[in-house]
Amino acid sequence: MRILQLANRVPWPLKDGGAIAIYNMACSYAEEGNQLTLFCLNTVKHQVDVGSLPTPFHKQFRLVDAPIDNRVRLIPALINLFRSDSYNISRFWSKEVALRIAEVATELQPEMVQFEGPFMLPYLPVIREAVPKACCIMRAHNVEHRIWERMAESVHSKLKARYFRLLARRLKQYEVNTLNQLDGFLPISETDLTTFRELGITIPALVSSAGMLLRNVNMPIIDSAPGQFSFIGSLDWLPNTEALDWLLVEVWPLVLQKAPDFVLHVAGRNMPKRYRQYQSECVKIYGEVEDGKDFLRNHGPLLVPLLSGSGVRIKILEALAEGQAVISTATGAEGLELQHNQQLLIANTASEFADAIVTLGNSPELSRRLGENGWMKVQSSYTQQVQTRKIINWIKEGVK
Fold this sequence. Notes:
With 400 residues, this protein is of the alpha/beta class. It contains 15 helices and 12 strands. The protein has helices at 17-31, 56-59, 74-80, 87-90, 95-108, 124-130, 144-154, 158-179, 190-199, 238-258, 292-298, 314-321, 350-361, 364-381, 384-396, and strands spanning 2-7, 35-43, 62-68, 112-116, 135-140, 184-187, 228-232, 263-267, 283-287, 302-304, 326-328, 345-346. It has a 6-stranded parallel sheet, with helices on both faces. Helix 7 (144-154) runs antiparallel to helix 8 (158-179) and helix 10 packs across helix 13 (350-361). The longest helix has 22 residues, at 158-179. It is globular. The two termini are 18 Å apart.
């Protein structure tokens, strides 16, 4: 099958969930024998030298990138306050990019076009005109407007809360109006599918979770001492900074009251300088690390203290794929078929989260059991190969 995959960023380096999800699916489509072209916006924020990318980008599938400067700018953002369109979406539009997409689509004549999230949907009319017979679907990594709704609920500034609610309303309206113009969509969880249906999205849907590209059939060996815990995430994404602030300010002091020798290891891309103030014997601040999987293996169970967001947490699946134990809020684990005390621990308040950390840190046997159960769950349910075959069969059967 000829497939055109449209992404709002080049998925490299593989240090955040969005990049991993796009990359894994592209590789899996190609490995299943499909002719894949991955078209990516090459943004200023995530700018990549495509000539330096590793083999899969050049051998397994074709990569086409288009430069775009879609940074948030004060004046356009202020002007947008007096308009009705979504600034989150409109800043991803470019006439030059539209012309390039039309050119690539006309040349490839794809049978399927997959939009990676709503930020590429402004180009749907371009695709419809260039390849009217192509089946157009969108993979919904998140219910995007819910992220802004939850952040509006959690920020202390009333002005920020009002602005976030405005962004959420406009993004919600865009999602409702645009998704029904597609032939089908891929929500990443049953929870997200329910939300989309409640919004009035009536087109065919196939739940397709994020998946790992697993090459090793044996469970990795964990090499971390008891009492060590890790946090890793892109810190230019508001839900992650909100989560880390909560962990450092509300949760970790409670942990140290009961276990003063425990150590928290914090890593993340684009880390704000303010986090350096937390550097101590009990909190190690790393910034960006070279190998996220190595960090997960060697710095203890993963903490996922997310308070807002939607979709599926790739980092949880990455940790479980490495055989590492996980403690998460219910929001962090939302959309994953994982059970408390079976494949991970769920804790929602600061005291509950701290108690879970202390319990896990004092019980190597519990940590080992959760890691083993989680690894087996990823093997059975969350490989990208399984998810990709489901999608291809769905498309060939006529998207229903």
